[in-house]
Structures are given as C-alpha cells and as structure tokens.
Specification:
heterodimer; A: alpha+beta; SH3 type barrels; six-stranded antiparallel beta sheet; 2 helices; 6 strands; globular; B: about 625 residues; alpha/beta; Rossmann fold; seven-stranded mixed beta sheet; 26 helices
C-alpha cells in the first residue's frame, strides 16, 4: 500500500501527521521512518527516482526502521550520518529528501 | 563423475562489504591466491586454492562485497553475474558461501533471501562471532538453519576459527550431491525489497536476541572523529602525516634504490666492453628497471596508511568529512586520498583511486590526479626557478622563488579541480551519483591482513605496471641512442638520434610557445619521467654531471633562454603528461588505452594552451 503511494503520490506532505523529511533533520533528532518515496524533483541525479528509492530501501531505509541523526558535515550541514536500526549510514541531504520520519516525543 | 572428483569444486564468497569476507578468504586459502582482473572490467578477481582435511580440492572465489544482487557498480555486476553464472569466462560456482557479520545481520539476511532465489547450494558463515558473543548477542543457529534451509557455521576469520567446520559443510553439500535448483531470481522492485526487509525483520526477531552489551565504542570514537571541527582537524593532521611520510620517509629508500641501480649499472659498464650491448644493459634495462622500482617505497608507504585506515574503518569517515569539499568540484568524498597521494607521485595516487567504487567518480579522479604537483616535477621547477626567478625577498618571510614554487603547486590544484568540474559537466552530463555509505564498526587492523594486502599491492605494481613501464623506458632509451653520432661529430650524441631528429622535426610545433629545439629534444627522454628532463637538458647543452652541477646548467639556461621561454617551460610542466609510467598505470587501472589516451590529449592541450598564453603574455610585457 505504501508502495503505491510512493510511486504515484504527487508532491504532497506525508500522510503521517507531523512527519518531516530526513533531509531537514538535525543531529540528535530521532524517530521512526514512516514513509520512503520516489518523488524528489532533483534533476541531476545520476539515477532516476525509482532507482534512488531502491538503493535507500536496500540500505535499510524502510518504513518502521528506527533512525537517529548522529552527525553532520561542517559545510552546509552536509552530509549526515545516521544510526539506522543497528548500523550507521552516511548520506547526502539531497538523497534523503524522500525519507520521512516521525520524531519521538521529547 | 570422475571428472567432477578430479576438478576442484568452485566456491564463491558473497556478502555485504565490511563483513570480514576477505579475512575469511585469506583464512581459507592462506597464501595460495591469485589476483587478476575480470575480462574487460577493472574489477579485481581474487581466487585461491585450498585442500580440505579429506583431500578435496576447492577453488575459492572472493567476490566483491555487495548489498544486493541488483548490481549498481562494476564490482557488484561481477558479483551478480558470477553468482548467476553469467560471467564470461567464469564457470558458475558449485557452492556459495554467504558471509555475514554476526553483529549486523539485517541487511545480509535480505541478501541471503536473494541468494536463495538463485537456487545454488549455500552455506552461511556467521563471521565475527566472537564479537557477537562478547556483546551478548544470542543467535539461535538451529532455528535460523531451519528457517533459511542452509547449514550455518560460526566463524572468526581473523583467528582462523570455524574454518575447518566451514569447509566440512561445503564438502558435505558437494558430497550429498546438492544441486542447484531453478533460478527464480530477478531484479526486485521497490515493493519486493520492502517485503524482503519485512521478512528479514521477522527472521531477526524470531532467532536473534539483541545484544546485552551493544558496541558503544564506535559511537564514542565517532563523536570525536566525525565532529565537524575536531574531525576535520584530525583528518587534516592525518593527511599531513601521510603526505610527510610518502614524501620524506620514502626519500632515503628511493635514494638507496637509485644508488643501488647506479652502482649496478656502473658495475655492468666496467664488466662489459664498450658498445651497444653495454649501453643497452646499463642505460636501457637497468635504468629502466630502476625507474620502476624507485616508485615502490612511496607506493608501499602510501598503501600502508590506506590499508590501515581502511581496515580500522576510518576511510568511510574521511570520505564523510571531505564529501562536501570535494563535491564542489564534482568529486567523490573518497577522491581526496588519491589526489593527496598524487603530490608525491601520481602512480600510487591513481592506484589508490580504487577506494572509489563508482566508476565515473573513479575515472574523474584518475584523470585529474597527474595535475597535482608530484615530486618528480620538483627538480625541473627548482632548475628553472633558480635560473630565471631572482632570489629576492618580497615581504616578511616571503621569497620570490618560494612564491613562484607555491604558485606552481596552486596552479596544479586549481587545474585539477577545474578539470574535474568540466569532466563532470562534459562526460557525465552533470550526473551526481547518490552518496550512500555504510560507516562500519571500528576494528583493530590485523598485522597479517595489512602485510598480506601490502604485499599484494607491491606484486600488482611490479608485475603489471612494470610490464608496461619497462618496455616504454627501453623505447625511450632506444630513441635517444639510435642512430649514434657520425665519426668526428662535435655536438651531443642525442642530437643525432631519433629523439634529436624528432625534436628538430616537431620544433616548429613548439615555436609558438617559445621552445627552442634543445628543449624539445630534452622533452623526449623526459617522457620517461619528468625529472629526466633535467639530465636531458644537461646533455643537449653539454653540461657534464648535471646532478652535481645544477647551478652551471641554470646559468647556461639563463644565457640561452628568454624569461618568457623559461616561464612557458614551467607552465608546460604543470600540465603536460610528461610521464610514460603514469599513462601505463592509467591503462592498467582502467583496463583501457582509451582513458590513457584521453589523459594524454587533454593534458597536452592544456599544457600547450597555458604555455602559449604565458609565453605571449610575458613577451608582451617585455620578457621576450
């Protein structure tokens, strides 16, 4: 079901109330991934959105995964390092646009 | 049947990166391994032999690490095709060993589900099992075996534990006549990847109890090493240390090798009668071998650091820290190590570019690496600067000669960044690959693995680069030697050789950038290695014993050349591909003459244009 959304949803906010894009998260932010999509309009990816989505999924950016932003780069706060369930992954913010997270209540 | 017994059974190692797959490969095969390239690609093919306790021969193939069979890089294509039995010249494996980091099973479980669909007999090696035990992680191996339908062996590759058990299981599969079932694997869609994850998650919940004492060390180290300011400071200090090491520690070794070969060639000269054979052996072969071997200390020191940092788990962190800075020029975060190394010598730099797994990013890095000012340029720069730039203080602590030297370095760096930016725009049409990278758990590197890897690099360099570099050196010697001067000739011998003829013939091409024929002739032997141009200039200007007498040559050049010509020569040396060995290594590393050709053409063009502009600007300002 969420897959249908991911493939066909227009550029709308996530259906999950209060979810934010991983690309906008700060170090210390933690929560759970609620949606991963293939819709970013970044034109100069070497791969299409569907391929980016599959790579994200393969790395474990899947709905239900626990995520915590650990670190960010000095320049432009980019890239970011996250804890994803029990592994650590680095990615650029531009590649994290379509990962939506629901933050834990503070 | 009998053939099957006689032939070694084929076993392929498949797993995520950072699971200790290579350590397992080493533990299985010991020293009995061979490294080659897969036909037509740059991916290394590592194969090793092993004889089991019962005398069965196994041939083990270490496939590149991957997160899925969906192949996103050339390395991963090899893994997929080898597993599927589609790889040209490769027979499909009889048994697959899936290698997993026992402390990090989530992603590998999904890969295992994919491998199951391929239908080959499989054994799962739960590697780094000691760490899992130390963390208090509990894995129900029995249950997992039932669930996955394949035997599971706990291993600690670095301590060679579980290896016999693993080979016994592989043998068991072969002996039981386990055959491949129908291959139902196809590229999964996003939905299928999600399903597989859900499945993996269910398996994980059912058979693995989370660690009681999870690793916190990695997190604590990261809070320092990935700190925006402290992390970058540490990285820069490390880079400085590496640069120093490659630059200065290698120097005595290189001098030693150099002296050794000079001595050897002297010995040969004394032992052999004068004549062509003596010249060929002393100046062609021995000098040629020497010019290859002399790079070895730098390569070993550089790779020592790279392997150590890679095994420790730091490389991914360094790439993380540098990604934004390198990204501005269209380079991958991992490109900085090769580029930094290229300050010592482009050859280890280009070889180090293999840490970049994306093909485009790697080729861009290889193409711009020779623009970084390598140490072989220094003798040339020193000569020309001392001849043409006044030794004058231009400010507090600022010397004009030093300033020019710095300017040459800066020009090289700016050149490299601009060219990589252009390559990205022109060749790759602005495409930027996604940057997704696992930050592995820190691990203490093992001495054995570092030593083995280092030995491997040395072998690769000597056998394969040497095979290309040596003939080129001999060719350059041949061109500079034949034909010999006629009897009673007064000019330097090189003047009458093919190099001299070529130099005279193409001099008109170089006239617009202010080069005289002596310079063009010197460029030809200088193609063997940049610093050789200094000796060659000494030869054409008949200055004896240039090594000890650089000052005399400088004075001679200052008489013979205008300032504009001197500056033009410097500009040429910043950009020109004056190094046959580099081109040979590019060919070897990219497995194609095309990229070596691209490099030759773009660097020559850039050098010519820059020299042209510099020469004419200088002439216009009255320095002609």
């Amino acid at each position: 079901m969420s897959d249908a959304l991911a493939t066909h949803a227009p550029m709308t906010p996530s259906p999950v109330v209060g979810a934010v894009r991983l690309s906008a998260a700060h170090p210390g932010d933690r929560g759970i991934i609620v949606d991963v999509r293939a819709e970013s309009q970044v034109g100069d990816h070497g791969v299409d959105n569907e391929e980016l989505l599959r790579r994200l999924l393969e790395f474990g950016f899947v709905e239900g995964a626990m995520i915590e932003v650990l670190h960010e780069g000095l320049f432009g706060h980019d890239p970011i390092a996250v804890r994803l369930d029990d592994m650590r992954v680095a990615l650029r913010r531009r590649d994290a646009e379509d990962v939506w997270i629901k933050m834990d209540a503070l | 049947m009998s053939e099957a017994v006689l032939q070694a059974a084929r076993v392929a190692l498949v797993g995520n990166p950072n699971t200790g797959k290579t350590a397992l490969f080493n533990a299985l095969t010991g020293g009995r391994q061979k490294v080659a390239n897969y036909a037509g690609v740059t991916v290394e093919r590592k194969e090793g032999q092993l004889t089991t306790a019962s005398g069965r021969a196994l041939s083990i193939l270490d496939l590149p690490g991957t997160y899925s069979l969906r192949a996103r890089s050339p390395d991963e294509v090899v893994t997929r095709d080898a597993v599927l039995g589609r790889l040209t010249g490769e027979i499909e494996p009889d048994v697959v060993i899936a290698v997993a980091d026992a402390t990090n099973l989530r992603l590998v479980l999904r890969l295992i589900l994919e491998l199951k669909a391929v239908g080959r007999p499989m054994v799962l090696a739960l590697n780094m099992f000691d760490i899992a035990q130390r963390q208090g992680l509990r894995i129900d191996i029995e249950g997992l075996q039932r669930e996955l339908g394949c035997p599971i062996v706990a291993t600690v590759a670095t301590r060679k534990r579980g290896i016999d058990d693993l080979t016994a299981q592989v043998e068991g599969l072969i002996a039981s006549g386990a055959l491949s079932t129908t291959n139902t694997w196809r590229e999964p869609s996003a939905m299928e990847i999600r399903d597989a994850h859900r499945n993996a998650q269910r398996i994980l919940r059912a058979y693995v109890r989370p660690p009681e004492r999870p690793d916190t060390l990695t997190g604590r180290i990261d809070s320092v090493l990935l700190h925006p300011v402290a992390g970058l400071t540490i990285l820069l200090s490390l880079l400085f240390l590496m640069f120093q090491a490659v630059f200065t520690w290698a120097a005595p070794l290189m001098d030693g090798i150099d002296a050794g070969f000079t001595w050897l060639s002297l010995l040969v000269s004394q032992g052999l009668p004068d004549g062509l054979i003596k010249d060929f052996i002393a100046d062609g072969v021995i000098a040629g071998v020497g010019s290859v071997l002399v790079f070895l200390p730098q390569i070993l020191i550089l790779f020592f650091f790279i392997i150590l940092l890679e095994d420790f788990g730091y490389m991914a962190r360094a790439a993380f820290l540098m990604d934004k800075i390198m990204g501005g020029a269209g380079l991958h975060g991992r490109a900085f190590i090769p580029l930094l190394s290229s300050f010592a010598c482009a050859i280890p730099g280009i070889m180090a570019a293999r840490v970049i797994d994306q093909k485009r990013d790697r080729i861009t890095t290889i193409l711009v690496a020779p623009l970084m000012t390598c140490s072989a340029r220094i003798p040339v720069y020193t000569l020309i600067i001392s001849a043409f730039i006044p030794d004058r203080v231009v400010g507090p602590g600022l010397n004009l000669q030093g300033l020019v030297m710095f300017g040459l370095y800066a020009t090289g760096i700016l050149g490299a960044l601009s060219v990589s930016f252009l390559i990205r725009k022109v060749f790759w049409r602005g495409a930027v690959e996604p940057f997704l990278m696992e930050l592995p758990t820190y691990k203490l590197p093992s001495t054995e693995s570092v030593a083995r890897n280092l030995w491997l690099r040395a072998q690769i360099f000597l056998s394969r680069a040497g095979r290309i570099i040596l003939p080129l050196m001999v060719l350059v010697w041949f061109l500079s030697t034949f034909p010999g001067p006629p009897a009673g000739a007064s000019g330097p011998a090189i003047d009458y050789s093919f190099a001299g003829l070529i130099g005279h013939a193409i001099q008109p091409l170089f006239a617009p950038i202010g080069f005289n024929w002596q310079m063009v002739v010197a460029l030809i032997p200088g193609f063997a290695a940049r610093e050789v141009a200094v000796a060659a200039l000494g030869t054409v200007y008949a200055v004896a014993n240039v090594d000890a007498n650089v000052g005399a040559l400088g004075a001679r050049l200052a008489e013979q050349w205008s300032l504009a010509t001197g500056l033009s020569f410097l500009a040429w040396y910043v950009f020109a591909p004056q190094c046959a060995a580099t081109l040979a290594v590019v060919k070897r590393e990219t497995n194609s003459w095309i990229w070596a050709g691209v490099m030759l053409v773009y660097m020559t063009t850039l050098a010519y244009l820059t020299s042209f502009v510099v020469y004419h600007a200088a002439v216009a300002m009255g320095a002609g």
